[in-house]
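Practice problem: predict the structure.
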Amino acid sequence: MSVSLTERAAEHVQRFLSGAQGGNGLRLGVKPTGCSGYAYVVQPAREVGEHDRVFESHGVQVIVDDESLKFLAGTVVDFTREGLNEGFKFNNPNVSATCGCGESFNV
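Answer:
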């Protein structure tokens, strides 16, 4: 299964990467944290490692390490604006629960 971006998220990433030094794609991952277990990690990708998978989505390379892919397979990432807040929204079919603050998830 792949990890993909909506068109709106891809446009945001392309604008961001055009100003980022050395970014050639978007790296997505997870890290253990929070009250529900895991949190998303989003950062510019500067290189592709031996244990990375690369997905192409609306002209953007989405890079996910093999370990994180277990948690992110099938995820669609959108970029949303709600009032004064904006950010990535993850539609992750693997999530079984989220914490009350929405910052972490469990599978």
